[in-house]
Design brief:
Its cofactor is Mg(2+). The protein is built from 4 helices and 11 strands. The protein is an alpha/beta fold. The longest helix is centred in the first third of the chain and has 21 residues.
Length: 198
């Protein structure tokens, strides 16, 4: 099964990296409209606590969405690799002037500041990257398992928050993914073209 997952991962990563700069730009605009509309549909007036990621390896560009969410005065958080348990993620407040550093994958993350960490159950939304997704809401990540391990404890408790939302290009959708017992399925995936709900 791991070989099949690796093959899908390699194929989809190549596919999304072949998207042109223009296609990525249009996709970022559509994502921005789709998620901000998702928030409007919830008819909430409170400022949401939203964890998101900085784009890497051809992922759906989140920079425009982050700017829009800042403009709407929502609280934004980025994942950082746990400094004492490198298998899990923490979510730290991200502002325009946040000091940043590259982690050992070369991905920018805020410099650790324990006063700016948001406990997972306090987040309203967790917008997650993914490599591929299928018709049932299963998610295939990069293979590091960071999100699955981070969410495993909450998954056992049938949590209500945060709402997990996968972000992906439409070309990352496949008919069916081979899944493992530790995979955390998603109830919502937003692409530039549509919002999938299960």
């Amino acid at each position: 099964m791991s070989n099949k997952r690796s093959q899908i991962r390699e194929y989809i990563r190549k596919t999304r990296n072949n998207l042109s700069k223009s296609q990525q730009g249009i996709a970022a605009q559509q994502l921005n409209m789709n998620f901000t509309q998702h928030l409007k549909d919830k008819k909430t007036t409170k400022k949401e606590h939203i964890a998101i990621y900085l784009t890497n390896d051809g992922e759906l560009d989140t920079s425009l969405l982050i700017k829009s969410l800042w403009d709407l005065n929502h609280y934004i958080y980025l994942p950082i690799i746990h400094p004492f348990n490198g298998a899990n993620l923490l979510f730290q407040r991200y502002e325009k002037n946040s000091p940043m550093r590259a982690n050992h994958y070369g991905i920018l993350e805020p410099k650790l500041n324990c006063t700016q960490i948001c406990p997972l159950p306090m987040l309203d939304y967790l917008l997650m990257p993914l490599v591929a997704f299928d018709e049932q809401g299963n998610r295939l990540g990069m293979g590091g398992g960071f999100y699955d391990r981070t969410l495993a404890r909450l998954h056992d408790q049938h949590w209500q928050k945060p709402q997990l939302i996968g972000l992906a290009h439409e070309c990352q959708k496949v008919d069916e993914l081979p899944i493992e017992s530790w995979d955390v399925p998603l109830k919502t995936i937003i692409t530039p073209d549509k919002t999938y709900c299960w």
